[in-house]
Amino acid sequence: MDNSIYTTSEDNVNDLKKNWSRSDAYVVEIDGKSIGSWEDYITKIEKAFDFPTSCIDTVDGYLDWIRDLSWIDKESYKLVIHHYNYFLAKEPKLKASIMNDFKEIILPFWQDEVQTVVIGGEPRSFDVYLVE
């Protein structure tokens, strides 16, 4: 299992969603057109992943909760960002930082680090789909 970030089309995501509906996947879809700031992003992510507390003032809190998700009893997580070209379009540094956090922190954690950090932690598939 290699957790990854994929750039894909709307048609491909629609095909993938059919497979996900038959699996034990937790699927979050957000519209990049509606995300222009950190506040927009974290508000959508908090709600979609049902974070126990707000992370609007803390990136560390966000990174903690997105690497916990113990309240979601699923075997895999899928994050789909529709209209990715609009996602944080006026905040390119923030956009790059969020994508880097997925690549360097979040996805590796779920791929194997969870086993050494969490007692009884099990690797999970966590993939991000960037839909143009």
Automatic annotation (TrEMBL):
<protein>
    <recommendedName>
        <fullName>Barstar (barnase inhibitor) domain-containing protein</fullName>
    </recommendedName>
</protein>
<comment type="similarity">
    <text>Belongs to the barstar family.</text>
</comment>
<dbReference type="InterPro" id="IPR000468">
    <property type="entry name" value="Barstar"/>
</dbReference>
<feature type="domain" description="Barstar (barnase inhibitor)">
    <location>
        <begin position="27"/>
        <end position="105"/>
    </location>
</feature>
<dbReference type="InterPro" id="IPR035905">
    <property type="entry name" value="Barstar-like_sf"/>
</dbReference>
<dbReference type="Pfam" id="PF01337">
    <property type="entry name" value="Barstar"/>
</dbReference>
